[in-house]
């Protein structure tokens, strides 16, 4: 039964007549006299949950304009502080980073992952170990460079799929295929044994996993409405997906262990993420646990799942938004194509990663796309580990904290023409650095501080190469007879995506 959680929640609220009784808003004081953040009027029991809508980042921006850059909401039983300014984001991710460094318990993450997952795990030893393994062993510059051949092969295959598609191209399908190809080969290897029925079952399984991970369950916020999750089929789907995913990953890990026993280990530049994680596992077993947290199969599975979900969804979503913005801005499209084609030069037949360093305007386009369309506009929620403060307001321990990165990136107080696509606004930046500046909290598409996303170095070259390849080989336009401009409506999920499918006309170009 496909029922919107917001529709179900509103239905129950109407039945119980709670909409008739509004609680007075304001800025209540805590027990010690210090003021909590201001709070808009809410509903008894449900609080502000029915008020945030299907695109919460937009609704929260409107609420912040009225109540201030730090608000206290009651999402059912969950006290939640929303930070909607660069100054507030800086306090959360830098000034008081440690106090805000944990994660709340998220029901679907608990069902689908273990405490080892790097993204959703609470602050503690499990998270520290996962972060260390990811940064040192999986996402180092050397490791990311080792997958260059995969990215280039998948980009060439992507261009081939566009040529075979003819004039009308479903660019969503092309880009998701590229993204899945890159991350699948990086994580699992090149032998293809994981590709159940040509990869269709694998794609469906990971698609279900990502969809569930982006679902907010009723029972998490309002325990007496947990039955809604069962009615919607979320519990049954989560159980089925978790079991199927666990069985698949156990098989992949067992196959890798068997291969390692039966042959010499491949060179460092040809090992996938599972090999690297097994190296860590074997090294820790050899050294002895020493009373620490064991890095076992459950840890390996959790890290694989988070890596796959994060790398696939955010990369694909950003590329779709970038192409949509360029279609609506033909001058910028021509400028970036001229840059790419000049960099490849006469006699060149394809874009390689050696060309990417020369593509400064392409980097500006990607950065402006991320400003306007952060894949996770509210990032992942933080949770306070102790009583702390935010812009002078008291924030008690175990409070959920949301950073509205989307609202911060469109704040007219800090950005000129804040809602317009203007890549040149970043022209003065040092684009050799990553996307998590320790200084500029006006732009935080990947978060920052302890809980910032360490996968940026893996995602960015994948995006740059794919977009450069598409823009080098083809001229793009909207289908004839249709709208003259692409509608930029959003659709919520694990990430916020373009609602419309990106059907474009691709005209092959040759030097």
UniProtKB/TrEMBL annotation:
Gene3D superfamilies: Cytochrome P450. SUPFAM superfamilies: Cytochrome P450 (SSF48264). Residues 1-28 form the signal peptide. Keywords: Heme, Iron, Metal-binding, Monooxygenase, Oxidoreductase, Signal. InterPro entries: Cyt_P450, Cyt_P450_CS, Cyt_P450_E_grp-I, Cyt_P450_sf. The keyword Heme applies. Its cofactor is heme. GO terms for molecular function: heme binding; iron ion binding; monooxygenase activity; oxidoreductase activity, acting on paired donors, with incorporation or reduction of molecular oxygen. Heme binds at residue 453. PANTHER family: CYTOCHROME P450 71A2-LIKE (PTHR47955:SF15), CYTOCHROME P450 FAMILY 71 PROTEIN (PTHR47955). Belongs to the cytochrome P450 family. This is Cytochrome P450 71A1.
